[in-house]
Design brief:
Blueprint: E1 2-9, E2 17-21, E3 30-33, E4 36-50, E5 53-62, H1 68-74
Parallel strand pairs: 1-5
Antiparallel strand pairs: 1-2, 3-4, 4-5
């Protein structure tokens, strides 16, 4: 099965993407779109699967970046 996933980003100006995947995305997964990392917050079937294809919509939000200095100071 090939999953055609439409990614929409909330909380930031980003055009989103449509990506073919071998496995379906799940809430909490992280995905890289361009140079940025995002966390998936919702996954919805757009229509029933047809043949070898499933069509999904995934809403995601930017993952907060932390610097190595901040991480070091926290420990």
């Amino acid at each position: 099965m090939i999953y055609k996933v439409s990614y929409v980003v909330v909380g930031k100006k980003h055009p989103g993407e449509i990506i073919n995947m071998d496995t379906p995305p799940r809430v909490g997964d992280r995905v890289q779109l361009g140079d940025e990392m995002f966390e998936i917050t919702e996954v919805v079937d757009l229509m029933p699967p047809r043949g070898e294809f499933a069509y999904l919509h995934a809403t995601c939000r930017p993952v907060k970046q932390t610097s190595s200095t901040t991480e070091t100071e926290d420990h």
